[in-house]
Amino acid sequence: MYLTLQTKHLLSDSALQTLIDNLLDISNASNSLIASKIVELGLNIPQNFFQDNNFFQRFHNNSNGKMRTSFCRKKYFKENFNYIEPVCMYFESDNDKKGPKMYYVPIHETIRGLMKNSFVYKHWENNTNCLNANDNILSDITDGKNYKNSQFFKENPLALRIILYQDSFELCNPLGSSKKIHKVIGIYMILANIPAYSRCRVDHIQLVGLCLERDCKKYGFSECFKLIMNDLHTLETEGITLNDKTKKIKGTVVAMAGDNLGNHQIGGYIENFSNNEYFCRYCHITKTDFDNNKFHGFPLRTESSYQDDVDLCNVTGKPSRGIHDNSVLNRLNYFHVCTPGLPPCAAHDLFEGVVQYDVMIMVEYFVAKKVFSYDFINTRLQNVRFINESDISLSQIAYLRYLLIDYVELRNCFRKDFVYSAQLYLFIRFGPLRQLWTLRFESKHRYFKNIVRHSPNFKNILFTLSERHQLLQAMLLSHDSTFTDSVTCDTVTVFKSSDYPNNMSKIVEQQCIFNEPFISESAIFRGVRYQKGMFVCYGQNDNGYFCLCEIMYLLIRCSIYDTNT
Length: 565
Hints:
Blueprint: H1 2-7, H2 13-41, H3 49-52, H4 55-60, H5 70-80, E1 87-90, E2 101-104, H6 107-115, H7 118-126, E3 137-138, H8 145-148, H9 151-155, E4 160-170, E5 183-191, H10 196-199, E6 206-212, H11 213-219, H12 221-224, H13 226-237, E7 240-241, E8 248-249, E9 251-257, H14 260-267, H15 287-292, H16 303-316, H17 346-368, H18 374-383, E10 384-385, E11 392-393, H19 394-411, H20 425-430, H21 439-454, H22 461-477, E12 493-494, H23 502-511, E13 518-520, E14 522-525, E15 528-531, E16 535-540, E17 546-550, E18 554-556
Parallel strand pairs: 4-9, 10-16
Antiparallel strand pairs: 1-2, 2-6, 3-11, 4-5, 5-6, 7-8, 12-13, 13-18, 14-15, 16-17
Helix pairs in contact: 21-22
């Protein structure tokens, strides 16, 4: 409870201590009442019996209580939960330990901690994300050519598939006087061995490192990623033993997610998109070529061409074809930024660009024609849920190219500022790009911002952020509900046919295969909350129209003796 209050609800040490002191007063008052009652009844029980055997007071007594102070509580958390200590790393081996630093959460220990969870271990052992039998359907990153053509994963089918992410974010008001002073670069990771519906949960995203952006720019990504690359290289070549010491597991990076600026920074590409002639990290197209023909094919970047440009940079001291430095990620044996290994973010490229402009034009047109109103479409957006597995077929990708060409030509009739950046071969390389966008990773930033908002002490702020986050992850890993395939509900009641209309009772009796169904108005399954009044798409008819149903009730099969639901 204390750990949850401090890490999830961000209760400060002083506030928690005040709560504990008041609970102790209540406990003492209760003991006094019990003692007086013993005397009144003349019972043969020592008056201090309840005082000496009070569980709460035993843990909070001033002499040896394990929860008596903030220091003792934190020590107890670290000893009894799956806590992974962040490591302080000083840049350039600063001997006086007062220079710039970053905090790194060892990847090996994070993996061992995750593998203690039965859900993660089950999906890794069964290799459930590689069970797609249809080669023409892309449903996850394992269906892309990057994964299928990897010699490493062919030799190690159970290897860990690591998705890394790095991005900078402001801890303070980005418009205030402290702008860029406390700007932090966060490095996160997630295992692609677990299903996509679990990867979208922010709780499943693990912290790898935190450093100030100004230090990263001064010393470079090579210095920031020094310990990270060492651990990843060991994971590739030697592997690590799991907690039972009998199994050894290998793994490597399958993708480095990020926005365009972040990926160009870590990829060694020039970060100026407006003035740089070579602006694409996937091919050698130039601005001049792009203006002349947006759909003309250009040579793709390869590991060989990338190295040629790096060698030329080292000789001339100038960027070559948009590359100014070798990426630190290329130190890995089985990953290269030109595989390609830096996927695009559909959310940034589309939703924050062309989509928001064009969709608004369409909405305004239909509202003006009185096809629907703003209130109507807002209501539908709030209540209709299209739940799918992001499957896409090769034929759909081929058809999408022709649709894009028509779309660009039509759009040029009313807007001239469209920038065509879609390269459909990336679908084939990475699988559905939705699985690699940055929206869920960016949601992780909010937790660190909330910590600062509740405890605005910037003395060694990186340590505060990393330690508090690791305590949160220790708490989350102790709950079975963090990683689960089960249905979770706030409240449920036993279904009684007499309490519901006859037609519904008949449907339940005829269709329901549950021995004792429960009923609820809200439930969470695979990260999605379903509730009464929501419209859900359950398929398409022969004409291609979506079929929707409105949720009236949720029938749930569960048992108080079984956690499976």
